[in-house]
Amino acid sequence: MTIPSPCINICVTDPDNDLCLGCGRTTPEITKWSRYSDNEKRQVIAISRTRMDTEQLKEFDKAYKKIQERVNSNIKIKKLQNKQN
């Protein structure tokens, strides 16, 4: 399973704590995302979720679920297309 980026397109970093208001990651975590292993990605998401207040976490979870569904759906479609070829 692919671990999609937790970016939910609310890309505003708080200058006081260097946290993205959308995904709760720090600038270094965002920058290094593509180089992380799946396990590291899971850890970053877990940590970033603890940085969010209740309302932010609720909105993040809703948006990220849609991203995960879209990514996993696209992977399934590609696998089916490859089987047909």
Features:
85 residues, mainly alpha, two-stranded antiparallel ribbon, 3 helices
Distance between the termini: 22 Å
Our count of helices gives: 3
Quick one: biggest sheet?
A: 2 strands, antiparallel
Helix content: 55-70%
Shape: elongated
Placed side by side, the strands forming the largest sheet appear as 1-2
Q: Can you walk me through this structure?
A:
This protein is mainly alpha-helical and 85 residues long. It has one domain (13-84). Helices cover 59% and strands 5% of the residues. It has three helices and two strands. The protein has helices at 27-32, 38-50, 54-84, and strands spanning 13-14, 19-20. A two-stranded antiparallel sheet has the order 1-2. It is elongated, with a radius of gyration of 15 Å. The mean pLDDT is 91.
Topology:
Blueprint: E1 13-14, E2 19-20, H1 27-32, H2 38-50, H3 54-84
Antiparallel strand pairs: 1-2
Quick gist of this model?
The chain has helices spanning 27-32, 38-50, 54-84, and strands at 13-14, 19-20.
